[in-house]
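Handout, page 2. Input:
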Amino acid sequence: MKTIVLIPFLAIGITASAQDPVKTSPQYYKVLLENDRVRVLEFRLKPGEKEPQHSHPAGVVYVLGSATLKFGYPDGRTEERTATAGETIWREPVTHAVENIGKTEAHVIVIDLKKVLK
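Output:
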């Protein structure tokens, strides 16, 4: 398993609704499951599409469809990453914008943690 930290931002908790990706970009996200501990999202972003800035708590990303993405951070920094189908990624809490700069649709399952299990 390859670990890639997509974007830093530390705090376990529910995403603020102003930065909630399901609210800022409902065309790209589908809620598959939500309870008091996790929210599982399906995310799809076609080549050339860009989603606005939003936030995620810590969680796991499972890549279903390989894609090359450009991440933009609140401090103005950007980075390009290629996600490969079958890759499982631990992600610390993050605020970012995402643009698909590749030729294939990005397709991932996002598991956002809402609180620490005891």
